[in-house]
């Protein structure tokens, strides 16, 4: 019963959208062009970011070799921590770009934004920011704010995911 009602609603919506006229067709075409251009731009930016990251790592290794300290010789734990923080932040930045690309692809194919993906991108961005923070020079209120933001975004993701799982389970149950 529920699935028949949903199918009828979908048919009505398709009919309404299809009969809107030339302005709607122009808008849909323009939207597709913009999304494709954004995807191409994001692919170019990601390619440059990946190449730049490899170049920076190569430069760091080359500098260690030419300065005589060796590529694996780390003088102190804080030095290692700073190097790893920069590398992890760069990797997370590229992952953010990939998630944004996925968001555009989903919007292009389904014509809707998936809140779940947006919350994942936000969680990755917050995690990246936390990795590069200097906790020794932060106030307690700033740390509290970042913690509250982290909890809010992850709780939002949990609730969206839980609602989606509930909807899938409801659709899978046979109608009586």
Please explain how this structure is put together.
It is a single chain. The protein is extended. Helix content is 84%, strand content 0%. It starts with a helix and ends with a helix. With 176 residues, it is mostly helical. Helix 2 runs antiparallel to helix 3. The chain contains five helices and no strands. The N terminus is likely disordered.
Discrete helix count: 5
Helical residue percent? over 70%
Major β-sheet, in short? none
- Alpha-carbon Rg, integer: 24 Å
- Could you tell me how far the N terminus lies from the C terminus, measured between alpha carbons in angstroms? 9 Å
Query: Can you tell me the overall shape?
Result: extended
Number of DSSP-assigned strands = 0
Query: What oligomeric state do the depicted chains represent?
Result: single chain
Q: What would you call the structural class?
A: mainly alpha
The pLDDT mean sits at 79
Estimate what percentage of residues fall within beta strands. Answer: under 5%
Low-confidence parts: 1-18
Give the topology string: H per helix, E per strand.
Answer: HHHHH
Keywords:
mainly alpha, 5 helices, disordered N terminus
